[in-house]
Write a structure and sequence with these properties.
Helix content is 80%, strand content 0%. The protein is an all-alpha fold and 301 residues long. The protein has a domain of 128 residues. Helix 3 runs parallel beside helix 5, helix 7 crosses helix 9 and helix 9 packs antiparallel against helix 10.
């Protein structure tokens, strides 16, 4: 009963906090609605809301499922490393709440910035004029390219975030295991020697191999998306300001464009070699092509 009472009080506090924190947005929403209603454009006002709901619901559901699966796999990995399997309904509920909460925040960020780009993409019409380099209709750069760039950048950011989480998670396990091994040698906690914990024994080759092995799938998607990004960056050359005139110049077309294409192909190759090397836990195979790409991109710019 006490736990239920505490949860109830905590829920009320959270609701009150959300209301106070969203007070300005609520007032702004009501004000905008009254203004649109006054001028007879209520349908226009609800266009944005309908679009955000239609876009947000599927994104929220997909992200919640993916995050839940990801966190469950991390937990399973933790159980395997610690050799302790705990079946806890509250823990599963916590994982679901964390997945839903994180997905909600990401979804709100997406629909607040991408809803108009999505409507542009869906309702865009052709201009009947093409660019001189890629022969794409001009409408592609106005209505479609902004959304594609935003989606690719968002997914890359999420993959980088997952990569950081995996690295920190493995670092936590390695540090915990090292502390456990050292502490078992001493009965008195006061005799616990801090110098016995050597980071060189934690951050070793096996540690890196284990992380890369876990990042095999994420790495493939990351490199493939980087290849797509280089292709998309080639379209930006149409707006280049490096030369004396606005637009793609001789260097942009004959040097930079070819560099982007080489890097795009290299990223596809890196995805293949990284996956093979990660599965075999071979650092040279996994990191050779990505390292070459970094050097090439730095030299090219």
């Amino acid at each position: 009963m006490r736990n239920k009472g505490r949860l109830f009080v905590l829920g009320i506090i959270v609701v009150v906090f959300l209301i106070i924190n969203s007070f300005t947005n609520i007032v702004e929403f009501i004000t905008n609605y009254l203004w649109f209603k006054e001028v007879g454009y209520t349908q226009t006002f609800f266009t944005k809301i309908k679009a955000q709901i239609m876009i947000g619901i599927p994104i929220f559901i997909i992200l919640s499922i993916l995050l839940y699966i990801f966190i469950k796999k991390l937990k399973k990995k933790y159980d395997e490393e610690t050799e302790i399997i705990v079946v806890n309904k509250k823990l599963n509920l916590t994982i679901k709440l964390i997945s839903a909460g994180a997905s909600l925040l990401i979804t709100l960020n997406i629909i607040s910035t991408m809803w108009f780009e999505i409507l542009q993409y869906i309702n865009g019409v052709e201009f009947g004029a093409t660019d001189p380099i890629f022969n794409n209709d001009v409408s592609f750069y106005v209505f479609k390219l902004p959304l594609i760039n935003t989606i690719v950048s968002s997914i890359i950011s999420i993959l980088f975030l997952l990569t950081v989480i995996i690295i920190l998670f493995n670092g936590f396990l390695a540090l915990k295991d090292s502390i456990k091994n050292v502490s078992e040698k001493f009965e008195d906690i006061q005799q616990f020697p801090r110098k016995q914990i050597d980071l060189n024994n934690i951050l070793n080759k096996k540690f890196v191999e284990r992380i890369i092995n876990q990042l095999s799938i994420i790495g493939v998607f990351l490199f493939l998306l980087l290849a797509v990004r280089y292709i998309l960056r080639s379209y930006d050359l149409l707006y280049s300001r490096l030369g004396r005139v606005f637009g793609a110049g001789y260097t942009d077309i004959n040097v930079t464009l070819n560099l982007y294409r080489i890097l795009a192909v290299g990223c596809v190759l890196a995805a293949i070699t990284f996956f093979i090397g990660a599965r075999k836990r071979n650092l040279k195979t996994a990191l050779a092509v990505p390292a070459a790409l970094i050097i090439l991109s730095i030299a090219g710019t």
